[in-house]
Every structure is written in C-alpha cells, then in structure tokens.
Amino acid sequence: MNFREIADLVALFILPVLIVGLPLYGLIRRVPVYERFVEGAKDGFTTAVRILPYVIAILFSIAMFRASGAMGFLQEGLRRPLSVLGFPPELVRMAVVRPLTGSGSIGILADMIKQYGPDSILVKMAATIYGSTETTFYVLAVYFGAVNIRKTRHALPAGLIADACSILLSVWVVRMFFRR
Q: Number of structural domains, the chain?
C-alpha cells in the first residue's frame, strides 16, 4: 500500500469519526454537549457583532490594493525570481491575498478554476495553499482588535513565516502527489 492509498483511506474515515467521536467523547465525560454547543453559538454571535468594524476595514483595504493595480505590478515583478524557485508565477495572487482574506482567496481560486480547469495542477496547488494557510492579517486585525491587543509582538512574524512555509510546501507536495 503506497502513501497515496493510505492518505485516501484516512481521508475517507476522518470526517465521520470526528462527527460521531467528539459528541460521543463529550457524552462519556458527562458534558452536556448540546447545551455547550448552544452556549458557544451565542458567544460566536456576540463576537461576530464586535468584530464587524475590523472586518469592514480589512476588506476595504484589500479592495483598494487590488483596484490600484498594485497586485498586477507585484505579480509581474516577482515572476522571474519565483520561477527560479520552481514556484509558478500564476500562484502569486493567491500567495499574496490568502494571508489577507479568505473570501478574496476563494475568489482567486474560482477565477483560476475558470481559467485553468478544475483538474489542473495550478488549481490543485492554489486549493492546497488555501487549505494549509491562515488569513494572518485578518486574524490579527479582527481578533486582536476585538480584545484590544495593540502590540502583536511575535504573532505577525510567526504567522507570516508559517504562511510562507505552507505556501512553498503546498506547491512541492502537490507536485509530489500529482507528478505524471
């Protein structure tokens, strides 16, 4: 059994095990699972209302960045150095937008699916980048702002380093899995 077959087998069972296993574990530990879920949902709604101004601010900033043409300029400027590293220049937009916003990166992924087709290796790389990275700036702006943390200290560099590693590894892993 090779690595890909094992990964497919694990992927087949992971979601059902989580959906059944977590509530079952809570019941075994005598936790009122439904009541805790409802409590968490209420807290989530309150948090969503508190972070709304921060969400609007970051979405506005991203829209200005794209509308100014800075994204296209950045993509063209990085095309040659990234090609040397084996990083497809077509993924620059995803790599730049993903740490900023999830919805913007979904839009880029949808555009790539239309342009290259759902089975292209570029789309697989972009989807893997989407799934393995975090919206670092969004998280810092929204969640740190919601609890009034002004000095992020090491959170920003750590998040960006993790994103960069995830982006590069996404490209390499997809190449490894889908090498023909």
A: 1
